[in-house]
Amino acid sequence: MASDDLNAPLGQDKKKKRLPKLPLSGPQIMASVLGLSGLVVVAWALFVNDPLGGEPTAVVSAKLPGAQAKPDADGDGKEHARHDGAKGAPADAVAEATAKAAIPPPGSKTVTIIDGSSGQHQDIVIPGNQAGESAAPKSSIDQKLLDTTRHGAAPKIAADGTRPSAAYARPRVLPANRKDAPRIAIVIGGIGISASGTADAFTKLPAPVSFAVAPYGVDLDKLAERARGENHEVLLQVPMEPFDYPDNDPGPQTLLTTLSGEQNVDRLQWLMSRMQGYVGLTGFMGGRFSSSDQALTPVLRETAKRGLIYVDDGSSPRSVAGQVAGSQGLPFAKTDLVLDETPTAVEIDRALARLELLARDNGSAVGMATAQPGTIARIAEWAKTVESRGFVLVPVTMVAIKAKSS
């Protein structure tokens, strides 16, 4: 063993070993890697046919009507600009026909499908409703029957004498052997207030039943339009002062005995402007108002002037509506019974039976009820059999009479 080895401290070599030096520095290595990556990308784009760049795809086979190319006479299978039925046509005409055929029909949708294997795009036209979107139904309101007030449109007698009560009536054509049968008219009030009651009235009651629409609902014109479309006559309910007003308040613009005739007519025009297409008016909760000749006369004069009828709602036995209507030459009908004054099934059935007796004795009778599901259900059941007992169910205009002027 050499002396140097004995004298050297433990753990130390006499000569340090050095690591071999790399030919390139760190930044140079990084630049080389990036350059190599770029070469790989360029090579992939040049030699690999993948227009989607490696994105995952699904191959869908879509066969389009008429999209298959017809082989030519040589059988080469190539698509040619040849159109059946266009032989000998000028080139411009063929091009125009082709352009028109390329326009998708109204209401259709075009969906683009990408072929995953080739990357080709194909447009598929999904046809919609051939008739397109149905246009909104035209209103059945006759513009010549409308007058302009400060509150909006109100009914009027047309220049040719046409009355709204006649234009919007839905009379029944009775066979010869039924023309003299006792007539019963049913008026359902509160249409548009109770959603369930209104729905039941439309779905369960026959067309001769008349609907009285409250002026405080929404979309009243649409509601009246639907009613007329299903052959129901429409009345507008007019809130009038009851005996216990203001503890019992019918609502905004109520006609009051404490107001002047001009003020009540102005309120009436506001109520009339809420919707159109009705044959007449009927009172609502107007016990005190309908008992006052002074208060009621200007209102019924306005009603007559506008070519409507008036139906007394039977809220007061002291009503003078019949006499006032007679003095104004106003077609008038009086409610003989409020059918659901006691809103139980048993009492409603009894009221309907009494209505039949009144119709048999007087030749006609009018019943009023509210649009509540229980009431609608009883009247609907009764209406199924009433004509088998010798009566005819008619709209309210067929029992309204034009009283002689006193």
Structure description:
There is one protein chain. The chain has 406 residues and is of the alpha/beta class. It is elongated, with a radius of gyration of 43 Å. The strands form three sheets. Strands 5, 6, 7, 8, 9, 10, 11, 12, 13 and 14 form a ten-stranded mixed beta sheet that branches. Strands 1-2 form a two-stranded antiparallel sheet. It has a domain at 184-401: TIM Barrel (Alpha-Beta Barrel). Helix 5 packs parallel to helix 11 (373-383) and helix 10 packs across helix 11. It has helices spanning 3-7, 26-47, 91-102, 164-167, 195-204, 220-229, 261-272, 293-305, 321-328, 345-362, 373-383; strands at residues 109-114, 121-126, 146-149, 152-155, 183-191, 210-213, 234-239, 280-284, 309-312, 331-334, 337-338, 364-370, 392-393, 401-402. The N and C termini lie far apart (157 Å). The longest helix is centred in the first third of the chain and has 22 residues, at 26-47.
Largest sheet: 10 strands, mixed
Detail the poorly predicted runs: 60-89, 97-102, 126-137
Helix and strand composition category: alpha/beta
The first-level CATH class of the domain at 184-401 is given as Alpha Beta
Shape: elongated
Helical content class: 25-40%
User: Whole-number radius of gyration?
Assistant: 43 Å
How far from one another are the termini?
A: 157 Å
**CATH superfamily assignment of the domain at 184-401?**
Glycoside hydrolase/deacetylase
According to CATH, the fold-level topology of the domain at 184-401 is: TIM Barrel
Strand content: 15-25%
Q: Average pLDDT, to the nearest integer?
A: 79
Per DSSP E runs of 2 or more residues, the count of β-strands stands at 14
Q: What letter string, H or E per element, gives the SSE order?
A: HHHEEEEHEHEHEHEHEHEEHEHEE
CATH architecture of the domain at 184-401: Alpha-Beta Barrel
Total helices: the number is 11
